[in-house]
# Entry
Amino acid sequence: MSMTFSIIKPDATKRNLTGAINKMIEDNNLIIVAQKRIKLTKEKAEGFYSIHKDKPFFKELIHYMISGPIIVQVLKGDNAVENYRKIMGATNPENADNGTIRKEFAINIQENSVHGSDSEENARIEIDYFFEKNEIIS
Ligand code: IDP
Ligand code: MG
# Structure
């Protein structure tokens, strides 16, 4: 068993899709071992996405990520990082496979409903960016 970090993004919380997305997560054998609903500050969002700071879409991405509440989560399961990336689907929903969260719910390449860590190392960094050890009950 391993862990990954997930965000249900503002486009999804605005459309009241938290439960629907959590059902897809749980139906795919991931356990939500920590979860909270928060609103990002600009500084916190910029820190989280600092790897993308030189991308043309960075400013717009930060504006979007602070536009409404998000749900931050820690997910646990077999190959959690890889498994959740599969369940999420491709970044651009036009390229996402049927049955994935982004195919079902994403609006476009930016407002794509969920985030999931892309490596075990980043999962650890991202979990630590939002959660204290004692908030994760596994
Ligand atoms: P990922 O979320 O699938 O890992 P990344 O390339 O890490 O995709 O991009 C982070 C986030 O930035 C995406 O989930 C999406 O919200 C946004 N994004 C990525 N590429 C674009 C783009 O070309 N235009 C607008 N937003 C983008
Ligand atoms: Mg990414």
Summary: The beta strands are 2-8, 31-38, 70-77, 114-116. The two ends are 11 Å apart (CA to CA). Residues 52, 57, 61, 91, 109-110, 112, 115, 118 surround inosine-5'-diphosphate (ligand 1) (CB under 6 Å).
